[in-house]
Amino acid sequence: MSAEATNPDAPSRRRARPRLDLRRLGRAALLGPAARDRLPDAIGHVAEAHRAHHPDADLAVLHRAYVLAEISHRGQFRKSGEPYITHPLAVTLILAELGAETTTLTAALLHDTVEDTEVTLDQVREEFGEEVCYLVDGVTKLEKVDYGAAAEPETFRKMLVATGNDVRVMSIKLADRLHNMRTLGVMRPEKQARIAKVTRDVLIPLAERLGVQALKTELEDLVFAILHPEEYEATRALIADNSSACDALATIAEQVSGVLREAGITAEVLVRPRHFVSVHRVRLKRGELRGTDFGRLLVLVGEDADCYAVLGELHTCFTPLISEFKDFIAAPKFNLYQSLHTAVAGPDGAVAEVLIRTHLMHKVAEAGVVALGSPSATADAEPAEDGERAEDGERADPTRPGWLTRLLEWQRSTPDPDTFWTSLRDHLAEDREITVFRPDGGTLGLPAGATCVDAAYAQHGEAAHTCLGARVNGRLATLSTVLGDGDTVQLLLAQDSTSGPSPDWLEHARTPAARLAITAWLQAHPETAKAPAVTPRPPSAVTADRRAAVGAVVDLPGAQVRLAGCCTPVPPDAITGFHVRGGAVTVHRAECPGAERMTTLGRTPLPVSWGDTLSCRVTLVAESFGRPRLLADLTEAIATAGAAVVSATVEPPTEQRVRHTYTLQLPDAAGLPALMRAMRDVAGVYDVSRVRPPAPSTVR
After folding, report:
1. Separation of alpha carbons 37 and 24, rounded Å
2. Is 116 considered catalytic here?
3. Which residue would you say has higher pLDDT here, 394 or 340?
4. Angstrom distance (rounded) from CA 657 to CA 479
5. Distance separating alpha carbons of residues 43 and 63, to the nearest angstrom
6. Using 50, 70 and 90 to split pLDDT, how confident is the model at 391?
7. Could you tell me which of 587, 637, 643 has the C-alpha nearest to residue 617?
8. Residues forming beta bridges with residue 619, ordered by sequence position
9. Of 538 and 433, which is predicted with more confidence?
10. Where are the beta strands (DSSP E) in 613-668?
11. Of 72, 612, 633, 669, whose Cβ has the fewest other Cβ atoms within 10 Å?
12. CA distance 406 to 404
């Protein structure tokens, strides 16, 4: 059977609602259904919890689902001896307390019937409709997942696809795992450890990403107790020894309530004790704990604007710790979480962490996607007869989180199961996300440590293959630049759709989507991945008469005139000349440091002017982001402008930036501005300038 055995004595986290007596529910289940005009006593608690969130819910379908589940499971028992019906009842109650809608609860009651009894999917479909049938089928497939190492890649791919098609499937699975973890005590220690490790590595991260904090925190505590029993006992003893620690928080809560009343803000101020794992983490971070470290204050208000009003009052009337402030309302987390986080110090110096959110935000923070209800209920279109499947066979789910959509996209393009599994584990291991802003005001959610490469693929998908660089907070940056929370990123794409990523990009990609897209492109273009380092093309210079090419005239008969290589003057630059060895005259730009040095050494400047010769020689420096075919495109632009390459130098790339230096022969100096514009228009080039002569060194 899919459900694990029960151990009523297993340690569990204290809950606001008392734990139900599953043995009593089991005895009630064995008595069979109650009278037709009322729900059976065994699901009375489910009905009560459901009506608390959905007052107008029709409970008749729950009645029918319970009767079918009870009859189907009658005679089956869990390993601890309780009637098996207690398991689907407990799973349904967990979801009912989170606010799940009736369809989800119906599927939760029936989630083991198809796998463990004679009930078929066709019977479920006929009795409860296509939507309940789809959920039961999805959970049944997840129950068959083999968590062994050899089967992990493909089985978790199925789990991911099932979750993406309808997040309620994973909601039921998480509630199922929570109840099994609560009742894991009679299992062999090695099996407990195996189940706990899978829960820790996969299901808890999925609960975090689906925003179901209520399930995630309890699962963390249960896993903590199994995998780290000594630390668990130490933490439990620490909490027991400080049972009155939250009194200090209660005092601050009263002060906060008074401040908000005086300000005319209607708010509910609660003290939320930390769960075991949270206390353990705080103790590792801060060492010795104070009374206020064992919990946090939760302030609930009606509207978003009230959250900021509360924040203003707290920061005005108490001493705020600015480093602890985080605004997850303006920039929600990737798992739908919204809240204001701050910390304030009371008059006695006690520091309290404060969470400020609306009642709706609190519901979503606790229940995540469970609180969003049925995807079909929020869809714009009418439900399709085939279970709301889109044209590609995938169910339309407007409640699907953006991160899940991205995971589904890259898993489709990853046929290799090992690559998929490695990427999935790396993604789930990310426990922190940053939010970066696009120039149009939109946002991108990325894992901490993400670079511009990740931002490019998150925003543009496969079009990011042509990305040349980025502007981060208005400044040019390489694709390897690591982004910070709140940065503004503008991605620069080439117009040439044939260009692609460099193998070096893989060193800077953190997200699975970016790594898989880059790898796929490189595999499809092996010549790029194996291409040798770029070397300059052989000079395509034309041999020209040196005197004719110079174009500068000096009033010295027979003197050989040459242009200085340090500044390469061209018409109409202001120029000056100096005598050099051999009777020649070297012509410099007037502002050239070399000319200044000649004057300092006592050389007499000679008057020089430009003659009628239009041709000239100039040295230009092009700065660009590295990419394939860049050198070819630049030399093509130079040739198209009518210039000849006398020499070219390409410096080794530094942080994906490349510096090209060209000495060019122009047929007409007037064409220099147009040539520089043509070079700047080449994809990847962000600056073209005349060579800048080095500043003269000062000898002391």
Report:
1. 22
2. yes
3. 340
4. 10
5. 8
6. very low
7. 643
8. 663
9. 433
10. 616-625, 644-650, 657-666
11. 612
12. 5
Structure tokens at 74: 């009658």
3-state secondary structure 223-241: HHHHHCHHHHHHHHHHHHH
Express as a percent the part of the chain with pLDDT over 70.
Answer: 74
Q: What is the spatial distance between Cα 407 and Cα 405, in angstroms, rounded to a whole number?
A: 5
Reported pTM: 0.62
Bridge partners of 633? none
Query: CA 651 to CA 336: how far, in whole Å?
Result: 47
Q: Catalytic: 254?
A: no
pLDDT in tens, 338-361: 999 999 987 777 889 999 999 999
State both tokens at 235: 């933490």
Measured distance CA(202)–CA(191) in Å, rounded:
17
Q: Which amino acid is at 612?
A: D
Residue 130 CA to residue 153 CA, distance in Å, equals 29
Could you tell me what percentage of the chain is helix, strand and coil, using 3-state DSSP and rounding each to the nearest 5?
A: 45, 15, 35
What pLDDT shows up at residue 665?
Answer: 84
Active-site entry in 4, 82, 112, 116: 116
pLDDT of residue 232: 92
**Distance between CA atoms of residues 81 and 109, nearest Å:** 20
**Residue 700, helix vs strand vs coil:** coil
Residue 106: is its pLDDT beyond 90? Answer: yes
| Torsion sign over Cα 144, 146, 151, 154 | positive
Under a CB-based contact definition with an 8 Å cutoff, are residues 187 and 240 in contact? no
CA distance 211 to 401: 10
Give the span between the Cα atoms of 253 and 250, in whole angstroms: 5
Dihedrals phi, psi of 470, to nearest 5 degrees: -155, 160
Among 115, 327, 409, 668, the one annotated catalytic = 115
